[in-house]
Amino acid sequence: MKSRITELLSIRYPIIEGGMVSIGDPELAAAVSNAGGLGIITAGGKSKGQLVQEIRLAGSLTDKPFGVNIALNARQQVGSYVEAVTQEKVSAVTTSAGSPEAITGQLHAAGIKVIQVVASVRHAKKAESVGVDAVVAEGYEAGGHNGPDETTTMVLVPQIVDAVKIPVIAAGGIGDARGFLAALALGAEGVQIGTRFIATNECIAHQNYKQAIIQADDTSTALIVRRPGRFFRVLKGPWPQKVLELENAGASTEQLLPYIAGELNRKAAIDGDIEAGYLYCGQVAGMLKEVVPAKEVIDSIVKGVSVLRKRLMEVDL
Ligand SMILES: Cc1cc2nc3c(=O)[nH]c(=O)nc-3n(C[C@H](O)[C@H](O)[C@H](O)COP(=O)(O)O)c2cc1C
């Protein structure tokens, strides 16, 4: 498989692991890179020292390129994360939740590719204008933080493809070869995947989280905290239900914040106490039936693409 994304990142398949706060650890990143994609360690919630250690660990587990996700709303930490990635010379950084303008030059000077996650045409154009190498167009189906306009992957990707010249990577709702090929049909040159990689052997997520994902159906996720800079897509459950009830009763953002603290995500995602916190999860969970090795996720996409292409050629349009 060749596209501007495989060329840009020197990877075999244009499949990128999404940044995943609480669970984006080096073991999964290395497994994704070893399988031919781009593994990503998530900086969010970690100290600079921890991040450096994790980059080194990933480097000892793979000789393939891998990257780091930096959520730019963690303003206090961004500088130290940039120091860590430039010092350790990762291949790429995916940025999200803010403008990458202030750090793109510094990352490029260290030879690091910069990919900005966006959820609107306006932000894609802005990212291109400040010199990023590619954008991830992330639709509203995605797990984690969503854009406020609730634009789906199906309509967001082609509009961003038409608006920018840099390569576009599609994210949100991609879990198998069908989603991968659909993204390419929309004009994307690669995909970013989050939720599918949670239900893998290498992911540090608690078994209860993985089980909840593979038991999910098409109605199992909800958007909570529809407030500027928030919009979390999570698995439905008692905790998100409580948050939704507070929102519906008119709670202020300040009143909601204690219910969406990062600690409550870790408690559910890592400790497995899934009723005592919240779990980020995309709508694609309804399609996932098994916990598998990360390599199997990628191999089955690659294999499935050739089967689907053949089938498409045979369709009498
Ligand atoms: C558990 C989880 C945590 C996430 N945390 C982050 C994050 O820290 N930074 C970020 O840029 N995106 C984050 N995302 C979004 C993913 O990087 C990715 O774009 C998204 O999962 C793609 O949609 P999908 O879940 O349908 O595959 C997260 C997603 C999930 C599922």
What's the SSE blueprint?
Layout: H1 4-9, E1 15-17, H2 26-34, E2 39-42, H3 48-61, E3 66-71, H4 75-88, E4 92-96, H5 101-109, E5 113-118, H6 121-129, E6 134-138, E7 144-145, H7 153-163, E8 168-171, H8 177-185, E9 190-193, H9 195-198, H10 207-215, E10 221-224, E11 232-235, H11 238-248, H12 253-256, H13 262-269, H14 294-314
Parallel strand pairs: 1-9, 2-3, 3-4, 4-5, 5-6, 6-8, 8-9
Antiparallel strand pairs: 7-11, 10-11
Helix pairs in contact: 2-3, 3-4, 8-14
The protein binds flavin mononucleotide.
**Shape-level CATH architecture of the largest domain:** Alpha-Beta Barrel
The count of strands amounts to 11
- Name of the top-level CATH class of the largest domain: Alpha Beta
Question: What is the quaternary state of this protein?
Answer: single chain
Q: Quick one: overall form?
A: globular
Would you tell me the structural class of the helices and strands? alpha/beta
Main sheet summary: 8 strands, parallel
Percent helix: 40-55%
**Are there runs of 5+ residues with pLDDT below 50, and where?**
none
Percent of residues in beta strands: 5-15%
What small molecules does this complex bind?
Answer: flavin mononucleotide
Cα separation of the termini = 26 Å
H/I helix tally: 14
Can you tell me the CATH topology of the largest domain? TIM Barrel
Radius of gyration (Å): 18 Å
Report strand order across the widest sheet: 1-9-8-6-5-4-3-2
